[in-house]
Amino acid sequence: MLDYLIRRILLGLGTLLLITFVVYGLIRVMPGDPLLVVMESMGPDKQPRPEDIERMREMFGLNDPWYVAYFEWLGRTLTGDLGNSLSRKAPVASLIAERIGPTLMLSVSSLLLTYLLAIPMGLYATARSNRLDERVLSTALYMLYSLPSFVAALLLQMLFAIHLRGTPFELPLFGMVSDNFDTMSRGEQLMDLFRHAVLPVTCYTYASLAYYSRFVRANMQEVIRQDYIRTARAKGVGPTAVLLKHAFRNTLIPLVTLIGLTLPTLLSGAIILEQIFSWPGMGKLFFESIRERDYPTLMGLMLMFSVLTLLGQLLADLLYAIVDPRVSYS
Amino acid sequence: MTTPVIAIKNLRTYFHTEEGVVRAVDDISFRLDEGRTLGIVGESGSGKSVTSLSVMKLLASSAKIESGSISLLGKELVGLPEPQMRKLRGATVSMIFQEPMTSLNPVFTVGAQVMEALRLHQGMSKSEARQRTIELFDEVGIPNPESRVDSYPHQMSGGQKQRVMIAMALSCDPELLIADEPTTALDVTIQAQILDILRRLRDSRGMSILFITHDLGVIAEIADDVLVMYRGKMVEYGPVLDIFENPKHPYTKGLLSCRPRLDSTYRLLPTVSDFMTTRDVVQPDGTTEVEVVEKKLTEADIKRMTTHGRGRLLHPKSELAAMGHPWDEARHPADTTAVEEGTTPLLEVNDLQVYFPVRRGVLARVVDHVKAVDGVSFKVYRGQTLGLVGESGCGKTTAGRAILRLIEPTGGGVKFEGQDVGALGSNDLRRLRRKLQIIFQDPYGSLNPRMTVESTIVEPMNVHGLGKSRAERRDMAAALLEEVDLKPEHLRRYPHEFSGGQRQRICIARALAVEPEFIVCDESVSALDVSVQAQVLNLLKRLQESRGLTYIFISHDLSVVKFMADMMAVMNGGKIVEFGPSENIYANPREDYTRKLISATPDDDIEQIRQRVEQREAMRAANA
Question: Which residue ranges run through the membrane (chain B) (predicted)?
Fold first, then answer.
């Protein structure tokens, strides 16, 4: 087991090196650079002098070939320094740190909500397979699934922030907190946060809800056709126990893969949704740093996502050994 | 008259499918008394499993009991509400299934799965149930039951899993045990052990068994009465001795004759179609009924099957003498021949080794080896059949694959027509593969479900550049299908439209597509019903004669190997323990292991059955 873990971590470090190298190259071949982006936003009369541009290019390391710049970045990163953002004049690490909270708030609550709803729904759909209520539920979920979340977000915003304005159901249009947040009491602050989070969390959840519940259902239906389910029924086990005990334990095996894949998305945020709701999270930071060609921030974020992806896979593999006795790493 | 354990009257179970109604069970009646065993025998699709699932009321949702009565200890099961039925399942009537590999839940320990039934029906506490499970494991012959209860299914062999299934089924002392093909997926040696356990437990507990199988040989070993099913109907029903001694229905006669028996001299096996022809008659309600017309098999016909066909072709006399089986004119049938001295063998295997590495540590270093094939040597001459026989895990399949270099051998050499196979580069190897083909065990898994029969058969022709045009290749494929007794119009169909036996014929046609000289048949008939097995074995023999093929025939069943093979190699633990002419090995086995394989073969000799029946009657009289 320990051998396996050590081997996996060594392999992971190698993979990480390769990923960051390729990603750095890709980022640098994107057209434009941070200075050009800034200059575009300035009026033609306020353009800096060529010698100033040259000085800044030198300062930001833009004159070096990208692979030289990569190794500089790598050297710094290995000492624990992710560098400073080019456009925000702040260390990348602290930029990421301040965005983690809001993003986790959205992603963790919607992930929990998804699992809490999707698993019972999938089990229910299996138990009531092909009956009217199951078909209605499945069709409804499928329709929701095919509705893009940004469309749903706009529709929800229209409904709750505009049509229901003035009613107790009114919800804020965007942002994470109201302007007068600092003057509120502790309880009011929580309520304010909650009211701001309802719409983004709903949008975040419903799309994955359809996906997860169908996933649970599809896997359950595969499992209940197996011989050992017939064995369980032949020894007199009731339908509920057959479903929850004998079948569901086996469905956990593919669910674990999904959990591993979910880990990086917990922090990557939902780029579009955070934009629509002006949620100050990771997705928004990611989007903006691409637009601003903010190389250090982009690399910091990519590094974090890569680590999480690799960790997620490792976690999934380790969980396999727990839920599936046939898997062992010794 | 006492209440029968189970009495079925005029049972009809139909499947309602999109293509119409299928009469899976059509008017079946029987009774089974305490302590007795009823064998239900029939081929795949005869309705025997549907009968047993009707008793358990575990039918698929498309199946429905249309009419009739099932009475379990006087209690009517047809129409019994599901919650009450659930109380009977596992307690009064329990069941074991064909596939021990998939019948246990992989994520629970085997002990927990047996304990579940005990806690459910007998209200035992966890520790009581565990104690009882250990006793049950001991009773069904699982070694170290105290530690084995905590094993997971994947840590056990097929035979042990089937023992767990038996322990589970017997845990709540049921009055009736339904055993649905419980030994079909197992080696003959394991089959013999499982039959032994079932007989012993039946007699010690006074339990009744409904034993379902396609193999009359197994029936002879265990049943008191026999019910023969054919296409949903009951064609014969009576005491076991009557059925074996004096079968009335042509289907029963066919089933009895098509088993390759160890002591028989058949060169081609009689098949069911030698005894009868069938005709589908469409009924007014749209369903079809089958009409059976008996064919009279004359003495001359039977004689033809024992003398017609090729005689045995043995190794050169000097080699026979060297292996301690000297040529003996008097003992061999007149048309047995020996290969001429000095002939180059078609295939020569020298000290073949296949080791699988066992890896440990961070760097996954090889710390040990599993010696699957450990120094195997033999020769096969052109036109011969060499049989490789042994139990699961003896290395016979690995040896077969290593010969074709489907697995790279660890050591030793394989020569084909004097050419060293191991030294060939990939292009030469591909050219050689044209001459060497293999037919696998599982006709379901070894055909690509997304490829038509035509593309399946034509693909190897394309690889080896056979046939000038598409049209020509299609014609060749059509001719191959006719050669294996299928029809050219089957070319456009997909594998799922065929039965197991038909699929195996497609696999044979695919192997023949490249006009090979040498074919490895790896358990090629083990997954088939005995009646279908006979047809496929005959086909392989016929093809051998018409095409001059050379076979290595691999099986766990010594009776099948003896029927097919000129020379036989008995394998155990990766080594050949005995090698010689098939008839000699059967008649005079020298190794205990060979004797064990021979005695495991089901014995349906009339005198044996008579003895068993008399013993059973004496036992019943003593108990009464």
Answer: none
CB atoms B99 and A227 under 8 Å: yes
Nearest CA in chain A to B52: A234
A117 and A253 together in one domain: yes
User: Using one digit for the tens of pLDDT, what is the confidence trace for B478-488?
Assistant: 999 999 999 99
For the stretch B608-624, pLDDT in tens is 899 999 999 998 888 77
Q: What does pTM read for this prediction? A: 0.86
Residue A135 CA to residue A217 CA, distance in Å, equals 12
Q: Which of B102, B116, B361 sits opposite A235 (nearest CB)?
A: B116
DSSP, residue by residue, B348-390: EEEEEEEEEEEEETTTTEEEEEEEEEEEEEEEE-TT-EEEEE-
With respect to residue A189, please indicate whether it lies within any of the assigned structural domains. Answer: no
CA distance B126 to chain A (A): 17
For A115, residues 6+ apart whose C-beta sits below 8 A from its C-beta are A212
Question: Chain B partners of A235 at a C-beta cutoff of 8 Å?
Answer: 89-90, 94, 116-117, 120, 168-169
Averaged pLDDT, A32-38: 79
Predicted pLDDT at B1: 62
Beta bridge partners of B281: B289
CB A30 within 8 A of CB A309: no
Percent of chain A predicted with pLDDT > 90: 20
User: In angstroms, rounded to a whole number, what is the distance separating the alpha carbons of residues B122 and A4?
Assistant: 44
User: Which residues are registered as beta bridge partners of B208?
Assistant: B176
Which residue from A minimizes the CA distance to B361? A3
Alpha-carbon distance of B475 to B493, in angstroms, equals: 16
Is A188 a member of any domain? no
In a domain, A94, yes or no: no
Specify whether A314 is located in the same domain as A251.
yes
pLDDT over threshold 80, residue A47:
no
The domains found in chain B, sorted by start residue, are: 313-435+516-603 (3.40.50.300), 449-514 (no CATH)
Domain boundary pick from A78, A108, A124: A78
Amino acid at B592: D
In this prediction, residue A234 has a pLDDT band, given cuts at 50, 70 and 90, of: very high
Residues from chain A that touch B117, judged by Cβ atoms under 8 A, are 235-236
Q: How many domains does chain A have?
A: 2
User: For the segment B449-458, what is each residue's pLDDT rounded down to a tens digit?
Assistant: 999 999 999 9
In the block, tokens 């509705």 appear at A147
Structural domain containing residue A271: 100-150+200-323
Q: What is the pLDDT of residues B491-531, one digit of tens each?
A: 999 998 888 889 999 999 999 999 999 999 999 898 888 88
- Which residues touch A74 (CB under 8 Å, ≥6 apart)? A20
Q: How far apart are CA A96 and CA B91, in angstroms?
A: 62
Distance CA A290, CA B616 (A): 86
Chain B contact set for A323 (CB, 8 A):
107
A108 and A204 share a domain? Answer: yes
Q: How many CB pairs under 8 A join A and B?
A: 82
Q: Please tell me whether residues A74 and A204 are part of one structural domain.
A: no
Give the closest of A226, A234, A246 to B102, CB-based. Answer: A226
A286, A103 contact by CB (below 8 A):
no
